Amino acid sequence: MDLFNDLALGFSVALVPVNLLYGFLGVLLGTMIGVLPGLGPVATISILLPFTFGLQPQAALIMLAGIYYGAQYGGSTTAILVNLPGESSSVITAIDGNQMARKGQAGLALATAALASFLAGTFATLVIALAAPTLAEVALQFGPADYFSLMVFGLVAAVILAHGSVLKAIGMIVAGMLLGTVGIDVNTSVPRFTFGIPQFGDGMDFAVIAMGIFGIGETIVNLERTGATRVYMQKIKSLWPSLQDLRAMLPPAIRGTLLGSALGVLPGGGPVLASFSAYVLEKKLSRHPENFGKGAIEGVAGPEAANNGAAQTSFIPLLTLGLPSNAVMALMIGALMMQGLHPGPQLMRDKPELFWGLVASMWTGNLMLVILNLPLVGMWAKMLTMPYRFLYPAILIICCVGVYSINNSALDVLIAALFGFVGYLLYRLQCEPAPLLLGFILGPLIEENLRRALVISHGDPLVLVQRPISLTFLALTAVLVVVLCAPMIRSTRDKVFAEESS
Amino acid sequence: MKTKQLIPLLGALTAVVMAATGPAAGQANYPNQPIRVIVPFAPGGASDFVARLIQPGMSQFLGQQVVLENRAGAAGNVGMDVAARAAPDGYTIFLGNVGTISINPSLYPELTVKPEKDFIPISIVADTPGILIAGTKFPPNNAKELVDYAKARQGKVNFASPGSGSLNRLEMEIFRMNAGLDMNHVPYKGGAGPAVADIIGGHVELMFTTISSAIQHVKGGRLKALGVTMKERVPAMPDVPTMLEQGFPANVSSSWQGVLVPAGTPRPVIDKVHAALKEALSDPKVVARMAEAGVIATTNKTPEEFKAYLAEDAKKWADVIKKTGAKPE
Fold this sequence. Notes:
The complex is a heterodimer of chains A (502) and B (329).
Chain A: H1 2-14, H2 17-35, H3 41-52, H4 57-82, H5 91-102, H6 106-141, H7 144-161, H8 166-180, E1 183-184, E2 191-192, H9 206-224, H10 227-230, H11 243-264, H12 270-285, H13 298-313, H14 316-321, H15 327-338, H16 345-350, H17 352-383, H18 388-407, H19 410-428, H20 433-456, H21 463-466, H22 468-485, H23 487-501
Antiparallel strand pairs in A: 1-2
Helix pairs in contact in A: 1-17, 2-4, 2-17, 3-4, 3-15, 4-5, 4-6, 4-13, 4-15, 4-17, 5-6, 5-13, 6-11, 6-13, 6-17, 7-8, 7-12, 7-20, 7-22, 8-20, 9-18, 9-19, 9-20, 11-12, 11-13, 12-13, 18-19
Chain B: H1 2-20, H2 22-27, E1 35-39, H3 46-62, E2 66-70, H4 77-85, E3 92-97, H5 98-107, H6 115-118, E4 119-135, H7 143-151, E5 158-161, H8 167-179, E6 184-187, H9 192-200, E7 206-210, H10 211-219, E8 223-228, E9 254-262, H11 267-280, H12 284-292, E10 296-297, H13 303-324
Parallel strand pairs in B: 1-2, 1-3, 5-6
Antiparallel strand pairs in B: 3-9, 4-7, 4-8, 4-9, 4-10
Helix pairs in contact in B: 3-11, 5-13, 8-13
């Protein structure tokens, strides 16, 4: 009964017109920055932070939160339409989503993403309302050794992402990990691969590499195509999901929601890890794994549900313990502090209207996102009928502006251009870029946590198998390796590969 | 080498010329255009928090807009570099802190900015005491018990820090050195948050951090406080003894933020900014808001007082870095 009272209190806050308005502004802005590649939630919230100081704390927090999960929604739009993931968590969506768009199913893919995200958003709101404190305690149990094993599991799973050669996938992952080592080392403060350029001290930004490989690389690839094939899509078909489509997308969306909500609570790569774990899971469960990478609706529904669920449950450590699980959450702490509020276990008790108001606003915000995005589906899909000479220069300009806006650095634009050629080269060599980006994100996390775990254990590697959580993930990794090496799987893989290259 | 030496010389010459001619006419009616404050860290952090609180008061006193510019990166060195290269006309102000001004020059020998030469200090604006925290399952309850406990387990006790060259790491190194302890350093990145989380979770035993990032957890019973680094006890936590009263006088240190301007800025401008800071920090609302976050609002009587404080602070950390070998190899 308490829950109903709490939720009623929450909705009484969230449904106040001014809070609804700021919630709407938040999700609208979030969708926009999600669609514009490069401009991510961290940069946007940084810019808007000062403007929220004059607002009521509830309105400020509701708007900032809306920007964050709104961006997860919007990020999938460009991933599907033009194979350009706007946020790190939509890299996975691009794999099958873009293939669907190429087959003329852009509308269906966008609708699937929106509906799966809404399902996940609704469920994650309930999770926060019911189990936030308990989940936060679980997250605290995760030590550096456990994170290491979880990330290793993720990285091995990344091999399954590729629908081509396993060897190439591994090569891509390793290349990504190497790129991730650029920057000043955490443990020794020694600069690695910075070539004396101070801007490299903090490492390379994910968006710079992604914009280069996907956005600019894709543009170059399309220069090779001629005439009619350059047009992205001849005919728009199936704008709305049929009953059969709904039936196909529902189970993956539910599984993705559960997986995403669980992984989002953990700090670090929450939404990213969630979206590709969901993809791997769907590919393994599917009766037609060969369809993955060629426009499988499950490959859009699962990951999209997972990344939205994770984006929302990543608020749990912040709201219940006052601990940020990522850069956006750290900004939220700054926003609360400027309001004279101090996130921590006391916040939920002393300011229940703030906590429950935010939780309720997540649901109203998700509803607004669906209402906002579904009517746009048709418009977005039509955009693809634009001729190459208009569409691609526009993509290039948006990429450059987006990349520049991250650090106001012209060097970043040059690096993105360089990665554009890398992207083209990878396309010619039939190497998929998704595993490279996952290596880039997970590599540094793996290194950091492994070294931290070993420093804490005074160099004893047994710590990795002595902790139950860590041991579980290592065992799962071993199972995964066996599955990967099983000859049956390999033969399917080769068959797929053969079909592709023909 | 030659050109490298020439650049600062040229810079100094330009500064002299500009100080003699350009702004001279503008000094009397300073400020007549918006002023930018370079904050060398991201929005939402400790420096940004302080900057945004003093911004309205400064703006009101000076009768001009005060614009904050967050230039984060390389432990604050990126923003410091931008500020040091700016024209010394009072329209670019730098919000430095203990890390950028006092610690980084000793830690990064390749740093082109030399704070004591390239900046004129105006005043300290905020002081955040440090606190020694440990997980609730860690047996020692105060600094003395910690020394005994760690002495019996030399090299076994782990301490966290928000980075290899951070103030909090150096605070522990001083403590360790004076008590004759061997402890194991576990650096984190991404601010105090992840490190504090691992202490609460019991993965690492203890660390020095700012009061603001620990006070809620200490009050909520998830962390214990072994000592604070102020000269006097902190009003918000009267039960926690100071490191000084526990016999560790070297562990009186703080994480400060202060305002500096590029070298060559004319004296009347410096005095005006100093007056603006005093005015902004005398607002009871600003003082109260800072106090809620565990930050003490404070100013220096004269710019010279701040200069003397900085000289001492920089020397202190240079010594610690030299003696403990905390430098990157």
